[in-house]
Write a structure and sequence with these properties.
By secondary structure, this protein is an all-alpha fold. The chain is built from 8 helices and no strands. The protein has a single domain (2-197), classed as Tetratricopeptide repeat domain (Serine Threonine Protein Phosphatase 5, Tetratricopeptide repeat), CATH 1.25.40. It is globular, with a radius of gyration of 17 Å.
Length: 198
């Protein structure tokens, strides 16, 4: 009986982990950060969801113009786009390599920093993820996308209290945001499952 219970717990933990990986919302998993939050890119500038109480930075945009005037990530062959392709395919190590190159070449591109943080989360380099999130916040301010990804990052670490804090702050700033709500539901299910196993 004891052996059967430990097997059930192992299978449950494995299924929960797979669920987190599949259902979680990270910005880099989408073609464009603004698309991941239901906004469309505008020519020459990337739009993003701004917090309603953050009016001063609502006109700021993720993305740094390249010398040619296009946004980083607009060219399918640049480091940011290549990193996104690797991230979408689940190759987080290669994604990290290209996102790191993107921030080295364009250190003021907040989207590249946010995507780098997401890749660090998936390779379990949470110390580096925290530094990349801090840099994205320094460049773009506290945005819903960043809070959502930080909440997901804390979920991956098993730090449910901090995950709730970040996700609830994101939901307060963007009520009804489907990505934040999805992560909150995932977190609640994970917490309920953990409690049931205890």
């Amino acid at each position: 009986m004891r052996h059967g219970l430990s097997r059930l717990v192992s299978v449950t933990v494995l299924v929960m982990g797979a669920g987190l990986m599949l259902a979680g919302c990270n910005a880099a998993s989408n073609t464009s950060l603004s698309d991941s939050f239901g906004l469309k890119d505008t020519p020459g500038a990337a739009a993003f969801a701004a917090a309603p109480d953050d009016a001063a930075s609502q006109t700021a945009a993720f993305g740094e113009p390249t010398p040619e005037g296009a946004l980083l990530g607009a060219d399918a062959g640049d480091d940011l786009s290549t990193g996104k392709a690797y991230f979408r395919s689940g190759n987080y190590g290669m994604a990290e390599r290209y996102f790191r190159r993107a921030v080295e070449q364009h250190p003021t591109d907040a989207e590249a920093w946010l995507d780098l943080a997401a890749s660090y989360d998936h390779v379990k380099r949470f110390d580096l993820a925290d530094r990349a999130y801090a840099q994205a916040i320094k460049l773009a301010g506290v945005k819903v996308e960043i809070l959502n990804n930080q909440g997901y990052s804390y979920m991956l670490r098993g730090d449910n209290a901090r995950a709730y804090e970040k996700l609830n702050e994101a939901l307060r700033r963007a009520p009804g945001n489907p990505y934040v709500m999805s992560n909150l539901r995932l977190l609640q299910a994970s917490a309920a499952q953990s409690k049931a196993i205890e």
